[in-house]
Structures
1.
Amino acid sequence: MVGTTAYIAFGLMIAAGLILPTVLCIWWLKTRHEKFTSVLTGAMTFLIFALVLESIVHSIVFMVFPGIKDNVVAYMLYGALMAGIFEETGRFLAYKLVLKKRTNRETAISYGIGHGGFEAVYILAATGINNFVYAGIINAGQFPALLDQLKAAGQETSPIESLPEQLAAFGIADIGLPILERVFAVMFHIALSILVFYAVKNGKIWMYFLAVILHALLDAPAALYQQGVIGIAATEVCLALFSIVTFVIIYVFLYKRDKEVGEGVQVHNG
């Protein structure tokens, strides 16, 4: 049985997934007088390119080449590169087509908040809701019947067979790591949004390709974790360190320097 504590934890996960991105968005828009449509563009781009288009391609590839999932190296390279290609291409096209008239540097962070914030909502809130649904099925004694239905339909059930034990053991302390992970992920998305923004603004296509590579490098440990090669602790440490280093470097050498250059140019009327 899934107890009350677990249900509270699921609720807190949903709340964090909704509140944290919303507070960040409101604070940024109010303090920088930015337009909400820039944030919305980031969110919609993630939805279209990461959740829809990338998922369609995954379905086709795994159907045609099912052996990829059984090869650790192939799965890591494929998964990491696909995430980088789809999301960074989405960013590039959003700046090039939708936000082409917005050349102020704040647009890059606005877009990044939308992109990373929507992913946080999707992962934290959607996971919390999903847990609620499964917990209800488990407590109603209908989980074995659900497994039988999925097996009869030819679907793989091994990923969810241990859910009753996992959800029953889920507590308040278990939501800290997912929330912290999303904080670092949003930071990383803002960094790459800045990088691709300047790729378009300055006409430097190599920055776009660099963003694809950086994104792939970030997702590589997650792919290895899914294959059981490394543990969750190593995965999260890699995510945190890589996100922080990437953000600091890109912020200092692109975003901050752009402001300093702008302030250094003064027009004197004679």
2.
Amino acid sequence: MPPTSRPTLEDVARLAGVSLGSASRALSIPAQVKPGTLERVRRAVEQLGYIRSGAAQALASRRTRTVAAIYPTLDNPIFAVSIHALQRTLWELGYQLLIASHDYKPEREGDVLRAIVERGVDAIVLVGSEHSDEVFELARKYELPYVLTWSFNESKRAQSIGFSYYEAAYEMASLVASYGHTRIALCSGIANGNDRVRARIAGTRAALKVAGLELRSEWIVEQPFNFEGGRQAVRHILSGKDRPTVLICGTDLNAVGAIDECRSQGIRVPEDLSITGTDDIELAGLVEPKLTTIHVPTVEIGVRAARKVVAMIEGAELADELPMETRLVVRASLGRL
């Protein structure tokens, strides 16, 4: 029995009653095709079982219509939400998303990117502005446009989509000081290789200095951005003779872990220790007490990063970006003294 021939794009166009060009655009750039045409093409594709040849498409156009995004972790809800927005927007623009993580080990990022480049992508989305020379050299060598997300980079305004971690931390520390707290601890995250963490420490220190206060070195606790990191931070600050009255956490995950540790040790929040977070994930409004935190534009970062990187791929003129806005969300976990 002879093998069944594979359906072609011409077969799809014929069945859908559209031109070959319209069928191609419907599959490659659906946002630019009329809904009726798009629906007819999709029905034809489903009926025929048509699958595009990605290799042939890439050879013909020198594009894969794929964007890679490298994140420090896939566990944090803020990244999961932003990745969803990034992927959805890329789909609308006719591109696919390839996701990878270096698990907060920046020394691995070059290897991760090299493996991605070998598979073929048109551009990359990176988190933060601090990356190894190898990462930037690979991008240059393979002529890969890249977008820097989350931490806004003043020196690369045209390709930077994010906010100022310094300003966000400054606002939170100023709020804490205005509530009468003078003994303030910070669960910052790991500073090595992370420009966002260092900006958070600097912003906190600057705000406290304006208030006539000091961020004591023994109360800067570097812990991973997870629940256990928050628990460890509480254990650390409670082990000393002099205890802070508030713990500012670099993520809501840290803050929720810190609240859980306080509950285990019989420490009342906020009566004995106030706790604040950063990110405003859904859990921040569900934990008890509800978490004072910083709302960051998680979804918008993903959407704008997708639009920016596609514009770069397609050679559009790029406008300079401005830092995105964050805002304080005051809830019950921060008490007054």
3.
Amino acid sequence: MGEKVGAIDIGTNSIRLLVAVVDGDRVKTLRNAMQITRLGQDIGAGRLQSEAIARTVGVLRQYRSILDDEGVSLAVVAATSAVRDAVNREEFMQTVREETGLEITVLSGEEEAVLGYRGVLAGLPLDPADTIVVDVGGGSTEFVWTDTGRCHFCSLDVGAVRMTEQGADDRRIQALLAPVLQELEPLQASNLVGVGGTVTTLAAMTQGLVRYNPNLVHGFHLSYAAVNGMLGEIRSKSSGELRQMPGLQPERADIIEAGVRIVATIMGSLGREHLVVSETDILYGLALTVAGGVETKCQAVD
């Protein structure tokens, strides 16, 4: 029969909702939603900005109403990089609690990585021992892989919003990612899987999707040539032209170049001709966890 659960992922750039039925390791989506609120605005300041908090709380009110309408009594609300790094995160969490009644769990880099990994494996028929998962977010990028029978993870402060606000060039992104990429280069894993807004947006843009279709995005093979081609196209367009590109949400236009450069750097450094795009990610991992799924343990990489 399965259990009806809800999950909310409060990211640096967007907030997403999933209502699903979980039966064992299977997650059946009943309802989902996504809105960009840019909670991580001015992320380098280390403080959540009042206007960003207001935008986020407004969306969380809507999501709370959806959970109530769906009759969900078992739900988890998780926050990642922007909230994790903020000096005023307790103030934000208290505001959300008072305004919506929702209790936020702030995920560590390890928890974020492992939950994304679980979500991918729930949605794609892949061998964990032969798979590297990369989650390119707004504030950070997580890597999870298995080597010699052990699960490893690494979380780095390299995200589309953070790199945009820092004005980071290709050399800087390469330097920041280098420690984990050097660790991954010798691996013979057949599958490189990408999750997160940048990756799914790239899949939509590559296919010219005027209307986003998760069925066409999930499992899509995104080639390195297509990523580089899209990067060149993005760089050639004005801000106004960029906002009109099929597959790209206008609110993501200002950070998409940095996100694509992160993806291109990862694929180029690892010599990967393509990556598999997954729609199932941290939200699915959260749903499995709240429904009582088995936790996956990973070892941190320095």
